[in-house]
């Protein structure tokens, strides 16, 4: 009886400037196998369908439990995490491609600097003025804590940016994930001290106004984060901030 195998068609690119091409190969099937384990199996024996020895495929990975967001790629036409993509649930041959929103480094490995630079732009952190113990901070109301926790699940995987039609090489739109982080950190009792800075950062070019409300982001997010709800809330917050800027008052 012949051994059961899984066939892959992987879009490869040797350098950032070279032309992409498709590599076809098979690996032995195992129960509960995911895409990452298949790529690791091929790395142990990098031979294509024609029996030719080829260079191992390059990709990013880290936690292997859908927490770090590093292993994002396009699987059968859908951007998602390859660690949680089970072979038994995928149509074969399985097609793997790099996310096209970000520059290609090599093969399935991409450069996410665009996303991380956007997080810096919106100040997606809570500034502190020292490491000394200040005691317990102010408590958040339970209702606010619950939805803020949902926003904190973001693992900067980049899937929502890949799914968004407004994030591309011809646009400087920062994308859904950084916008959602603005709402998260503005909701924090200490982070609220920099609320106006974050709102003004998304009121200019590449910010909130560039969102086309396609809803692709919330449908593709592997963590089910209510991204469009955050964007709607930020539309209200930035309108209030615009009035404050106009009248120079914090009482609006």
TrEMBL record:
Domain of life of the source: Bacteria
InterPro entries: 2Fe-2S_ferredoxin-like_sf, 4Fe4S_Fe-S-bd, 4Fe4S_Fe_S_CS, Beta-grasp_dom_sf, Helical_ferredxn, SDH/FRD_Iron-Sulfur, Succ_DH/fum_Rdtase_Fe-S, Succ_DH/fum_Rdtase_N
Gene Ontology MF terms in the entry: 2 iron, 2 sulfur cluster binding; 3 iron, 4 sulfur cluster binding; 4 iron, 4 sulfur cluster binding; electron transfer activity; metal ion binding; succinate dehydrogenase (quinone) activity
Keyword 4Fe-4S found: yes
Cofactor: [2Fe-2S] cluster; [3Fe-4S] cluster; [4Fe-4S] cluster
BP terms from Gene Ontology: respiratory electron transport chain; tricarboxylic acid cycle
Family annotation (Pfam families): Fer2_3, Fer4_8
Domain 4Fe-4S ferredoxin-type: 145-173
Enzyme Commission number, as recorded: 1.3.5.1
Keywords: 2Fe-2S, 3Fe-4S, 4Fe-4S, Iron, Iron-sulfur, Metal-binding, Oxidoreductase, Tricarboxylic acid cycle
PANTHER family for this protein: SUCCINATE DEHYDROGENASE [UBIQUINONE] IRON-SULFUR SUBUNIT, MITOCHONDRIAL, SUCCINATE DEHYDROGENASE IRON-SULFUR PROTEIN
Family membership: Belongs to the succinate dehydrogenase/fumarate reductase iron-sulfur protein family.
Descriptive protein name: succinate dehydrogenase
């Amino acid at each position: 009886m012949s051994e059961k195998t899984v066939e892959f068609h992987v879009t490869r690119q040797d350098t950032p400037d070279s032309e992409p091409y498709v590599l076809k190969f098979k690996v032995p099937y195992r129960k509960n196998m995911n895409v990452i384990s298949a790529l690791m199996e091929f790395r142990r024996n990098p031979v294509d369908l024609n029996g030719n020895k080829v260079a191992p495929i390059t990709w990013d990975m880290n936690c292997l439990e859908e927490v770090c967001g590093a292993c994002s790629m396009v699987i059968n036409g859908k951007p998602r995490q390859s660690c949680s993509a089970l072979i038994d649930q995928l149509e074969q041959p399985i097609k793997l491609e790099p996310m096209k929103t970000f520059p290609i480094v090599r093969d399935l490995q991409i450069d996410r600097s665009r996303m991380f630079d956007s997080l810096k732009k919106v100040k997606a952190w809570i500034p502190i003025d020292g490491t000394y113990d200040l005691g317990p901070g102010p408590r958040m109301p339970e209702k606010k804590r619950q939805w803020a926790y949902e926003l904190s699940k973001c693992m900067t995987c980049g899937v929502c940016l890949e799914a968004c039609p407004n994030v591309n090489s011809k646009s400087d739109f920062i994308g859904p994930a950084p916008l959602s982080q603005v709402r998260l950190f503005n909701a924090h009792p200490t982070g609220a001290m920099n609320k106006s800075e974050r709102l003004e950062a998304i009121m200019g070019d590449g910010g909130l106004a560039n969102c086309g409300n396609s809803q692709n982001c919330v449908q593709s997010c592997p963590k089910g984060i209510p991204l469009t709800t955050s964007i709607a809330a930020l539309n209200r917050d930035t309108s209030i901030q615009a009035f404050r800027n106009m009248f120079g008052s914090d009482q609006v």
